């Protein structure tokens, strides 16, 4: 590796009148380092390479975000001029695409959620995204479990990234959530549409990219403390983080804990729906002139209560001994059986080596996901133990005459074992490898990109004979395919921007879809796989028009996604399975079988933000997905309802306080009348009223953010279209029986950023 001399980059940030802007944030995303300007608007960063072009992002409240390439070989200290704007700009850096770049020159439909937005009241990180990003929804099992859905697609069709590697937590399960600390991400990028070029099979719907806090400048130690309390289910959440940099030796440590008792609908508490969650994570690495090398680790533990509501009892919830639940039972933080015990261990080595004027990014990871489903005791009924090894290598050639090429290869090895008393999926091994080439060309106000990828996947399932009966037949499936994509952006002027994409991608069936055969305790149903499944093949296109000036920011997008051999589990009325436990007790379960159809999903999404004066902020987002099962000429099942969210935010200037705000929000969810009536029910439309207020006070030199927020303030009774507790999903015998979504919830929160050194 060629030796690269170290430099200290010095620069200045000013406004249009050449006046300094103290406190502006200066970030090099590809070098994972950030700093702020001093009282004179100056900044400096050491341990940077002396040559090469790197993307810089500069942000300051009340000004348009600036992104541009900086040539490290330049001898004159750069001066960056920011333009005033009372509205947030769309020109932010997106790192989850093959080449980092500002959003206006990136054809991918992408949204970013900032740290302040992530701190808004929510029960988990997917809940936070679904409430703020158009096109994003969630499959919920009460407040404790949320699975992301992008443009109507979820499960293994959405990739979640943490520290640059794919989260592998057995995403195929209805009640398998995302094993990631809600408080750990500093920023989240949501990429809508196929992202298979970079992430391979499983990214048909999109990507959720969780980004950790960047390292501070050399010689600094920073941190944060936050805590909150929610009234509906007594949810308490606390997180403490410290991060530092000593001459390029960088580190970060975080601990978080959440605990809740049973949630309350507008009419009643739902028994044993509490949860507790523990997260420990850290990073140790080097930021030097040759790039960076970081080792990240995390430990996630979640205990989640489950309750099988019986339609025969209506809402007279009874314990196992036949006695009704009391108020003390509902508010107890001790979980009963059945429940889930989930543990996720992860370590990865993330590197970016500067070679000549190019980059070599290498990310190696290992994950262990353990999911115990405890039915009657701490001895698990189902116990999935999944070990996953991942490797990802990308080489970025230096930019030349507007051309930016990148080549990459990735591999994934998985091994899953059953360690419980019961079985749902067989022991299996999985293997995947892929390679891609991508190029981006920028000229005048245009950007064009194209890419191609080849993937190979192999699944090997082990046979099992249980009590002289075949539970699982051994199987081996091999799949390979080629994906391709084209993208284009055009900036008509500083305010108006157009982007479009077209491409084809594929998804190989997972072992659960291929070979399930058993009771899935968490979903209260019997699942049967299909060993003859073919890969899904997606053909999709989208187009987005964006406009923003000093007072208005708007976007509208349309998309079309045709999926050949779409895989889903369905139930036929009368198809049931008797299960007998060790005591001879029989339980009847609905049987869900995996099959394939041709599906077509299309829709629109957008946002409109108005900022007529400095202290008024009106946000509006909307989204709708129309999904059709073309093979059977009926709607596709479990598709989110159309939504329109409106928030009016006041930001008054109050003496003694900073960043004061008061908001009122009205969330409209439309009737979902398009559903597969053979095994699903529709949902009525509903409107939720939300409100909140907050401000920042000074504790010496430390700012302290305080807030109070209320959701569903009118205590509205409703069923969400993607709730696993809505009518029809709990029982096919009584399709009218369901559990309402949570009622009124007031959240109190404190956030304290720390500047220690």
Automatic annotation (TrEMBL):
Q: Does the keyword Protein biosynthesis apply?
A: no
Its domain of life reads Bacteria
Q: Please state the protein's primary subcellular location.
A: membrane
Location(s) in or outside the cell: Cell outer membrane
Q: Which UniProt keywords apply?
A: Cell outer membrane, Membrane, Receptor, Signal, TonB box, Transmembrane, Transmembrane beta strand, Transport
Membrane-topology annotation of the record: Multi-pass membrane protein
Q: Which Pfam families does this entry report, sorted A to Z?
A: CarbopepD_reg_2, Plug, TonB_dep_Rec_b-barrel
Query: Is this entry keyworded Transmembrane?
Result: yes
Q: Where is the TonB-dependent receptor-like beta-barrel domain?
A: 251-713
**Matching SUPFAM superfamilies:** Carboxypeptidase regulatory domain-like, Porins
Domain named TonB-dependent receptor plug: which ranges? Answer: 105-207
Similarity field: Belongs to the TonB-dependent receptor family.
In Swiss-Prot or TrEMBL terms, this protein is called TonB-dependent receptor
Species of origin: Mucilaginibacter defluvii
């Amino acid at each position: 590796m060629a030796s690269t001399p170290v430099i200290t980059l010095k620069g200045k940030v000013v406004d249009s009148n050449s006046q300094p802007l103290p406190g502006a944030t200066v970030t090099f995303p590809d070098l994972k380092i950030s700093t702020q300007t001093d009282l004179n608007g100056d900044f400096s960063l050491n341990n940077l390479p002396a040559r090469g072009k790197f993307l810089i992002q500069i942000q300051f409240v009340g000004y348009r975000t600036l992104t541009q390439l900086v040539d490290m070989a330049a001898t004159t200290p750069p001066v960056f001029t920011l333009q005033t704007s009372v509205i947030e700009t769309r020109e932010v850096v997106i790192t989850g695409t093959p080449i980092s770049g500002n959003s206006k020159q990136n054809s991918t439909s992408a949204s970013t959620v900032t740290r302040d937005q992530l701190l808004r009241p929510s029960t988990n990180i997917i809940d936070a995204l679904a409430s703020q990003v158009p096109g994003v929804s969630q499959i919920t099992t009460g407040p404790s479990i949320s699975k992301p859905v992008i443009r109507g697609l979820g499960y293994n069709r959405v990739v979640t990234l943490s520290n640059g590697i794919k989260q592998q937590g057995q995403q195929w399960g209805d009640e398998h959530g995302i094993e990631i600390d809600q408080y750990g991400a500093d920023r989240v990028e949501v990429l809508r549409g196929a992202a298979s070029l970079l992430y391979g099979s499983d990214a048909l719907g999109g990507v959720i990219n969780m980004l950790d806090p960047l390292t501070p400048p050399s010689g600094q130690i920073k941190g944060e403390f936050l805590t909150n309390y929610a009234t509906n289910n007594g949810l308490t959440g606390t997180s403490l983080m410290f991060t530092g940099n000593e001459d390029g030796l960088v580190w970060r440590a975080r601990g978080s804990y959440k605990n809740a008792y049973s949630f309350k609908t507008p009419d009643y508490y739902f028994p044993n729906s509490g949860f507790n969650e523990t997260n420990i994570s850290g990073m140790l690495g080097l930021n030097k002139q040759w790039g960076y090398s970081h080792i990240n680790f995390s430990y996630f533990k979640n205990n989640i209560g489950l309750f099988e509501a019986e339609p025969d009892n209506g809402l007279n919830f009874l314990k196992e001994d036949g006695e009704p639940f009391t108020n003390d039972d509902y508010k107890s933080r001790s979980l009963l059986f059945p429940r889930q015990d989930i543990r996720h261990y992860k370590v990865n080595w993330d590197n970016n080596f500067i070679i000549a004027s190019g980059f070599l990014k290498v990310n190696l990871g290992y994950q262990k996901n353990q999911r115990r489903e405890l039915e009657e005791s701490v001895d698990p009924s189902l116990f999935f133990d999944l070990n996953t090894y991942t490797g990802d290598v990308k080489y970025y050639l230096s930019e030349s005459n507007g051309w930016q090429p990148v080549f990459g290869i990735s591999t994934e090895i998985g091994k899953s074992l059953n360690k419980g008393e019961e079985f749902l999926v067989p022991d299996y091994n999985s293997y995947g490898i892929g390679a891609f080439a991508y190029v981006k060309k920028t000229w005048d106000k245009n950007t064009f990109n194209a890419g191609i990828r080849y993937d190979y996947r192999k699944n090997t399932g082990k046979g099992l004979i249980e009590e002289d009966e075949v539970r699982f037949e051994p199987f081996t499936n091999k799949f390979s395919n080629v994906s391709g994509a084209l993208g284009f952006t055009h900036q008509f002027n500083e305010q108006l921007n157009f982007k479009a994409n077209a491409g084809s991608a594929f998804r190989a069936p997972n072992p659960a879809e291929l070979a399930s055969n058993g009771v899935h305790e968490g979903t209260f149903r019997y699942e049967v796989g299909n060993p003859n499944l073919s890969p899904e093949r997606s053909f999709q296109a989208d187009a987005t028009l964006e406009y923003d000036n000093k007072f208005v920011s708007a976007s509208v997008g349309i998309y079309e996604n045709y999926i050949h051999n779409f895989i889903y589990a369905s139930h036929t009325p009368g198809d049931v399975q008797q299960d007998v436990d060790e005591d001879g007790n029989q339980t009847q379960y609905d049987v869900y079988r995996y099959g394939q159809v041709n599906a077509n999903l299309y829709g629109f999404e957008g946002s409109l933000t108005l900022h007529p004066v400095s202290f008024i902020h009106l946000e509006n987002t909307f989204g709708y997905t129309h999904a059709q099962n073309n093979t059977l000429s009926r709607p596709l099942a479990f598709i989110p309802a159309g939504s329109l969210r409106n928030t009016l935010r006041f930001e008054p200037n109050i003496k003694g306080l900073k960043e004061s705000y008061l908001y009122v929000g009205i969330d409209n969810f439309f009737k979902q009348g398009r559903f597969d009536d053979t095994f699903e029910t529709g949902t009525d439309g509903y409107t939720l009223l939300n409100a909140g207020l907050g401000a920042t006070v000074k504790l010496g030199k430390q700012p302290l953010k305080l807030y109070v927020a209320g959701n569903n303030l009118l205590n509205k009774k409703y069923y969400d279209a993607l709730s696993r507790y809505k009518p029809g999903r709990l029982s096919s015998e009584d399709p009218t029986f369901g559990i309402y979504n949570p009622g009124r919830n007031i959240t109190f929160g404190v956030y304290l950023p720390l500047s220690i050194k």
